[in-house]
Amino acid sequence: MPYSLDLRVFRFNVQTDFLPYYTPISLKIDKSATLLDLLKSAKNKIKDLKFDSNVHLGVKVNSVITMLDTTIREIIEFFETNELIIEPIDEFRAIHDLIIDFSDFYEKMAILSPYFQEEDKKLYDELISCYYASPALQYERDYLGDSFFLFANTLTNKYPEHKEKILKIVANENYGIWLHTPLKNLLLDSEIANFVEKNITQLKQDVLKLIPNFNRATKQELKRSKNFFI
Amino acid sequence: MTNYIVYNALNPLYSTKPFDVGILLLNELNISSETTSNSQFDPGFNYSTLNSDLFVQIFMKPLLDATINKQTIIALEDSSYLGLNYVKYLLASNFDNELANSNVTCKDLPSIVHINSLFCSKNILQHISSNLKLSFENFYAGFYIGTDIDARVCKNYHIENIFASIKLNKVNMFQYAPSGFDIFTNSPNVAQKMAGKILCDAFDSGCDFLIVNDIRTFTFFDTYQKKIAKTIGREISISILTLSQVILMALGVTDKAVLGFDKHSVMPTFI
Q1: Which end of chain A lies in a sparser environment, N or C, as judged by fewer CB atoms within 10 Å?
Q2: A112-133: b or e for each residue (b if 16 or more CB lie within 10 Å)?
Q3: Which of B50, B89, B150, B198 is most worth mutating to test chain A (most A CB atoms within 10 A of its CB)?
Q4: Quick check: A151 and A113 in contact, CB under 8 A?
Q5: Distance from CA of B181 to the nearest CA of A (A)
């Protein structure tokens, strides 16, 4: 059965626009259709709408990152409304409508380049939504990003000979893992958020085991907790 | 009838009173319950990363006690709700010996409910509506969820129904931004900017007050509000309340000390 939706779609062209704006459209779509189908239907109404159909990237729906294979039913159930605001995964990096410049994503990957092979890049590509979901990135553009830590965690297991060097990068006081905050509710797919949390928790524990004295603040936190709870 | 026990070992490093008043509210609503005794304080969910063994030990006792006494545990706020559920999951999946030593099996482990979920039953909503002493019809409030607890859990509170029962208007604001508390020790500047964004969003959306469900979030938003305002370079003054405090006020409790307002840094001024 078709479902009536009221959309407001983010529009911006870096070459012609000074500020972004939103195009309102109404359309009907089947509940079993996906977000990608919805964007294609939107493009029928907004002929020059640009979006990236990379399934690993996703877009923001009502400020929550939603993968393109998510069904309309799941989206409506989560937001409990038929009014949806569609935005790029990171509106500060928008180039043309929902397409963004993700050069920063790959610049972060390059930091780990001495420790991985060409074949490993594919995994990093798949983590792009986790990178732009990282809230700390809005406040600290040099933050390494949650995708970086997931990638690093995989590399420490795959290449144990590089583990210590990788963990030292991960543990950077200003841009490292200590700026991570949970992604729950920021990604509509809670399984991805749980996966991120599980891996980052494991990585934090590895950092604490291998280089326990690296971070004054964490030491203070541990000391305070130990004094208090034991 | 459900046999409830309240996990009340909230961490005294933070502002416990606004959440402890939940016990008073349970009495007002005739939900009979005991409180846990000799439980260790909830260290906060992020402590599970720093010392997972100790984290398990802390929550194991109240879980096993409730199992033996066939009780359902009421968590007064998000952090203890998450901690209890996480350790229950770990016990069920990794700690067979510990359970066997206590003559307990996985399926005996107790249910854990968030206090907010108790307010949305038809009977309780009716009780609140029919005993309403103070109407909030001229007030607007935001309901902050954050990124620790799953939004799908919070949907079970049917918060719109609770707001309707006390005639409080709900402000539409983004509920899922991180509070920043988790990173406050390591990156106070970024943490305060995160909190500032939420507080400004609430203020700009027309909230008279902001309702939070987590003890750390409360402490951060209330106690550190002046510091946060200074960091983001904007004046903010918004009262932070818990749902229990708001419902108690609606039921006619106006004593500021009983409501725990004397412990607030940003004093609610509307009563």
Answers
A1: N
A2: beebbeeebeeebbebbbbbbb
A3: B50
A4: no
A5: 9
H or E element, residue A28: strand A21-30
Q: What pLDDT is attached to residue A225?
A: 45
Q: What is the pTM of this model?
A: 0.91
Chain segment B153-168, per-residue pLDDT in tens: 888 888 999 999 999 9
**A172 touching B (Cβ < 8 Å):** no
Tokens of A17: 């626009």
How far is the CA of A186 from the CAs of A179, A189, B19, B157, B185, in angstroms? 16, 9, 26, 20, 23
Host H or E run for residue A220: helix A216-229
Note the pLDDT of residue A227. 44
Q: Is the dihedral of CA B40, B42, B45, B46 positive or negative?
A: negative
pLDDT digits (tens, 9 = 90+) for A141-187: 999 999 999 999 999 999 999 999 999 999 998 899 999 999 999 99
Mutate to test the interface with B, among A185, A198, A204, A230 (most CBs of B within 10 A): A185
Chain center to CA of B66:
20
Q: Is A59 helix (H, G, I), strand (E, B) or coil?
A: strand
**Can you tell me the distance from the alpha carbon of B106 to that of B99, in angstroms, rounded to the nearest whole number?**
8
- Dist CA B90 CA B45 (whole Å): 14
Say which residues have a Cβ less than 8 Å from residue B168's Cβ, sequence separation at least 6. Answer: B136, B137, B139, B140, B141, B246, B250
Going through B3-159 in order, the beta strands assigned E by DSSP cover: 4-7, 33-35, 72-75, 112-114, 140-143
Task: State the Cα–Cα distance between residues B80 and B59, nearest whole angstrom.
Answer: 9
Say which of B41, B176, B182 has its CB closest to residue A64: B176
Q: How near does any CA of chain B get to the CA of A220, in Å?
A: 9
CA distance A48 to A51: 10
CA distances from A190 to A74, A82, B88, B95 (A): 12, 21, 20, 26
Residue B71: half-sphere exposure toward Cβ, Cα within 13 Å: 19
> Rounded to whole angstroms, how far apart are CA atoms B59 and A51?
47
Give B266's strand partners: none
d(CA B206, CA B119): 25
Residue A39, SS3? Answer: helix
Beta strand B239-241 pairing with A59-61: unpaired
Is A208 in Cβ contact with B48 (below 8 Å)?
no
Least CB-CB distance to A140: which of B147, B148, B190?
B190
Say how far residue B138 (Cα) sits from the centre of its chain.
Answer: 25
Beta strands in chain B (DSSP E): 4-7, 33-35, 72-75, 112-114, 140-143, 169-170, 209-211, 239-241
> How many contacts (CB atoms, under 8 Å) link A and B?
87
Residue of B nearest to A186 (CA): B176
